[in-house]
Amino acid sequence: QVQLVESGGGLVQAGGSLTLSCTRSRTILGISAMAWYRQIPGDQRELVASIATNGTTKYLDSVKGRFTITRDDAKNTVFLQMNNRQSDDTSVYFCKYCNYWGQGTQVTVAS
User: Which whole number is the average pLDDT over 3-26?
Assistant: First the structure.
């Protein structure tokens, strides 16, 4: 079993910045790849950003240039820095590691 603990959600003004963090309780088979998803009630969960074990990153088109995913392997933690927040970014953000999900953290962008 792996526990994922997320933090950093909250209310931010449009154009503002916010950083989410997610710490996993242990590492499976040397895998350090992690990802952030988001979901609006009634919609499918979508991949926002991912970082592979080798450090390769991928982003949802709508967040490219605004969001940055990074990782601190010593702390088993992944971060999602979100700049220039837009109202469409309002969602519940979930951290994923292998087949495990965090509990989700609400991010609301106020216009």
Answer: 93
